[in-house]
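Internal ticket - ligand job 457, zinc ion:
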Amino acid sequence: MRGSPFVGDALVGGDLPTRPVYQHEEEEPKKDSFCVEADLLIPGRGDPIKNGCIIIEGNKIKDVGTSAQLARPYSHLRKYHVKVLMPGMWDCHIHFIAVQRVAWDAILESTQKMALTGARCAPDLARLLDAGFTSVREMAGFGIQLDQAVEEGSLVGPKIYSSNAIISPTGGHADLHPVPKPWFDDLCAHGSPFQTADGVPECLKVVRMQLRAGARVIKICGSGGVGSELDNPVDQQFSDEEMKAMVDEAARAQRVIGAHCHGKAGIMAALHAGCKTIEHGSYLDEEVADLMIEKDAILVTTRLIVENGLLSKDYFSPVGYAKLLLVAKAQWNAMQIAIRKGVKCAIGTDNAGTLAPGNPMSKLVRQGLNGKELYYHVKAGMTPLQAIEAATANGPLTLGPQGPKAGQLKAGFDADFIGLDANPLDDIQVLSGPEHVTHVWKRGIMYKSPGQPVGLI
Ligand SMILES: [Zn+2]
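stdout (structure tokens):
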């Protein structure tokens, strides 16, 4: 039966729809096949191929090779040509909450006025796709609802894999400290993507609530944060026991945990508990790097929000800005250590939305400039090829068993790929915005071509 998840012999986590897909019984549509040739093909993992070629069938990549190898067997197919071809990028730490400042009152507004937030997010989705991001991992926000809109065709945007909420202890990073507790609890009960839990039973319940909402990854706070008012980014949040209980509960449902962590104690506790990804990782040192490699954990640094914050003081609350100054230096050091030691990294920006037109900082703080994160990684020690691997092939790894076969130009993988008019191996800033992204295909469908940008709705 089409539309049922119970098709085939085995269910793989990434194949299971998060919501039922209701479809009319109809004939299988004919799969579109075509070929894309490139002067340079960057596969996401492995060496670039000169005069490369990929063959697409439906929403999957069927074959990859050089044009010379593939021209004859596929000579009947329609052909596109691009200068540089690479997989669509992944932003592995993003938020669809459209906050206008990183401050509790702005967060309160965006979680209460959901239609306003949704309206602000809609063009952001198009901006991301236009800039070459075909998938995002949303680490708290309204991504599950927006993904439904994208999947049904109401909006154009990347595939969204969302955690739904961010979870911390009471008084922790996910709490809105100045808001009276009953009001906060009321927000939580009405779909706010900020949740608190205390003690193992509540931790289990709140993880199960995220699964109920359709989360593809679970986001918890291993340490305090920058954007919250009263907690300290250096301090551990959640006890070892609470973290372990949540990791185990998530694992039973084939989910991994991404742990927001700045301070070293929280990072170490999260790694020992079995969290798969460390978000931010500001106080990572040599010992942390060694443990991350031993545990095969992934670092998602999110440097872009730090750099944007340093350039635009008003984007943060006064207390947030003071905390930002503290972690910014440590985090730059941590990134360099992680890269030098060979810690596995994925690209994430912590971008939480485009500022409204008219805001003087809206040209800087906006979705669609997420590729700048690769530039900061290169500046911190990666080669451009490594940064591209972090932004493509490593993306699905941050979802554990929920990760799709995507992020690489490889037979059997999702047909998500982009064309560029300049070589990012010569200058990684080619990927910093939409200007050099000439083509975007997602699941085999072309959304952008020269002179035809992705429409803002
Ligand atoms: Zn974040």
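Auto-summary: The pocket of zinc ion is lined by residues 93, 95, 139, 350 (CB under 6 Å). Residues 318-341 form the longest helix (24 residues).
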